[in-house]
Amino acid sequence: MKKPNAKIYFIAAVAAFLGSCSQNETTEVDSKAESQKFEIINVTHHDGKPFSTGISSSSSTGKYVDNPGGGVMMQAFYWDVPSGGTWWNTVSGKVAAWGNAGIGSIWLPPASKAQNGAFSMGYDPTDYFDFGDYNQNGSIETRFGSKTELVNLITNAHTENLKVYADIVINHNSGGQSEANPFTGTSTWTNFTGIASGKFPRNYNDFYKNSYGNNDEGAFGGFPDLCHAAPNVQNWLWLRTDGVGKYYKNTMKFDGWRFDYVKGFAPWVIHDWNANVGGFSVGEYWDANVNTLESWANSANSSVFDFACYYKMNDAFDGNNLALLNDDMMWKRNPYKAVTFVTNHDTDEISNKLLAYSYILTHEGYPTIFYRDYEEWLDKNKLNNLIWIHNNKATGTTSILYSDNDEYVARRNGYNGNPGLVVYINNSDSWQERWIQTNWANTQIKDFTGNSTWFPTTQADKWVKIQCPPKGYSVWSINQ
């Protein structure tokens, strides 16, 4: 029996190896060609500047300052936070860690005394100037604490150079006394002349229906509906130097406003408040119609919560159709007036929250982190990583590089020397790889989330293959 011919085996092995290489190269070319078929969508067209709250980001304390990607807001409460007057102290104890993590502002719940006193979340306001220092509505302190504790919280936040936004409820009031109302021919709970602070007294003349009309754009829950056309209401809300807006800003030192239920009154109200009081402004206009959101924001001269983005994310991530992220949203219309969010105290529908946070913290607008997501429900380290990525890498205009049911890839195009990033979101159950076009030629990149261990180098034509873990995300930028 003859011995096997070693030379023949060697030739066969080499041929097999070369064939395998050729096949891999063909597969790589085919994969790149497939990605090249997707027409890149250049979503935004502006000079690349980040979102600005209009408030100086400089720091005399050496603490947090807005980074290249702009700021991140923390919603510093949830519905039915613990009662007992401890919440202001709870939040105060967290602002240093939040600032160190890259949070730039906190949004507080309505701070003044409401009808249910120590048990109210503040959305049924009685006395705008009782911050927990008057014995009224069954308690001295509010649910959240005393005025002294609130002032200490604001002071501590400012020491960390965090901005503080007040939740302002000016559509309706609650907790007034009954009075005969000649406009309704009945008794109404509209007598607020005996409030403990003695500031902003009001009666039936200041609520609909009255001499100014039967109603405005909307009423809420049967509460007395404030009439912003009434001179007494305008004076006390935003015109007087000792009125609500200017007292909150100049004496209490709030930096801005989250306006509740702005569907309930005309946008000129917020426009006039902003013109007379100043500070950052965002309205809660609960509507998924991006045309409506844009129209309100322009008329009110205010930012608006991007409910269009919220509902598209819900449909995309939970409905397993990431191509829906190509659809219209407020941040795409005007990234400088869009406040994005994943959860808030009123609505919590998105299941794949980390994917949603990876979206809003790499895209344009002013992203908001929900307290319970950060402190209780999700992986804080992963959120801190995304906050860092937002602040340091999420710069410039946005281009969508690829999308289908399971995969979404977008590029931030960089600004003022910052290279930007590429975010890859994968909603499938397996690792995915995709060729994409970057803005970087012959440059090594890495995944700043640490989810991928690849360190690929872009080709001369700026194309590169990246990967993404199952039900996860990766964020790529220059390795520096």
Automatic annotation (TrEMBL):
GO MF annotation, one: calcium ion binding
Domain of life assignment: Bacteria
Residues the record lists as binding Ca(2+) 1: N171
One Pfam assignment: Alpha-amylase
Coiled-coil region list: none
Annotated Ca(2+) 3 binding sites: D406
Family to which this protein belongs: Belongs to the glycosyl hydrolase 13 family.
Protein name listed in UniProt: Alpha-amylase
Annotated source species: Flavobacterium pectinovorum
